[in-house]
């Protein structure tokens, strides 16, 4: 084998390795984009509206697959597009769906369709109407909408403030706190 043939073989091997690396990088980037777009998204929690369930600064995975097959249900922790600030995502608990009637009494109890709710995740904090809101009770959730509230009822601007949100604005279901490690666990 001559020196020229050896150099050509090395160049072909280097080029082949470089192309393989580029293809692998493109595949990994494409796969991560597809997973983030269609399967799950990670969020950092910026406020205390879901405390004690999710703490400020926690990192949460929200999965998207289940809502391809069903609508959000009461009790689901959902991520959705902020109805007031475009491009911002909020996380709250779905409390009621289309056709259900929400009512709040003066003692801080929540009623859905006339039934008092037992909400252990609020840790006994009262549910009161927000004074800076135009929402009045009783309130019937319109078709195609859901009613969302933070678990920290005394520190959450939620549907009591901005009203029901379109079910079409839901981007995922919060399922797992993955950071910090002491908070690691499934969301309920």
Automatic annotation (TrEMBL):
InterPro entries: LexA/Signal_pep-like_sf, Pept_S26A_signal_pept_1, Pept_S26A_signal_pept_1_CS, Peptidase_S26. Residues 21-179 form the Peptidase S26 domain. It is found in: Cell membrane; Membrane. GO terms for cellular component: plasma membrane. The chain crosses the membrane at residues 14-35. Its main location: membrane. One of its GO terms (biological process) is signal peptide processing. GO terms for molecular function: serine-type endopeptidase activity; signal peptidase activity. It is a single-pass type II membrane protein. It comes from the Bacteria. It is an enzyme of class 3 (hydrolase). It catalyses: Cleavage of hydrophobic, N-terminal signal or leader sequences from secreted and periplasmic proteins. Its EC number is 3.4.21.89. Keywords: Hydrolase, Membrane, Protease, Transmembrane, Transmembrane helix. The active site is at residues 49, 92. SUPFAM superfamilies: LexA/Signal peptidase. PANTHER family: CHLOROPLAST PROCESSING PEPTIDASE (PTHR43390:SF1), SIGNAL PEPTIDASE I (PTHR43390). Belongs to the peptidase S26 family. This is Signal peptidase I. The gene is lepB.
């Amino acid at each position: 084998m001559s020196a020229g043939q050896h150099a050509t073989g090395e160049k072909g091997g280097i080029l082949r390795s470089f192309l393989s690396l580029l293809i692998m990088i493109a595949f990994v980037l494409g796969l991560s984009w597809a997973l983030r777009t269609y399967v799950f998204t990670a969020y950092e929690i910026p406020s205390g509206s879901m405390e004690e369930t999710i703490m400020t600064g926690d990192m949460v995975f929200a999965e998207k697959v289940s809502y391809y097959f069903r609508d959000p249900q009461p009790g689901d922790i959902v991520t959705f597009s902020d109805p007031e600030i475009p491009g911002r995502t909020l996380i709250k608990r779905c409390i009621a769906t289309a056709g259900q009637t929400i009512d709040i009494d003066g003692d801080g109890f929540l009623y859905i369709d006339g039934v008092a709710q037992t909400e252990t995740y609020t840790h006994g904090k009262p549910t009161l109407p927000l004074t800076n809101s135009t929402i009045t009770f009783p309130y019937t959730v319109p078709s195609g909408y859901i009613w969302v509230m933070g678990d920290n009822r005394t520190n959450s601007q939620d549907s009591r403030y901005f009203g029901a949100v379109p079910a079409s604005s839901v981007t995922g279901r919060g399922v797992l706190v993955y950071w910090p490690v002491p908070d690691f666990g499934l969301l309920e």
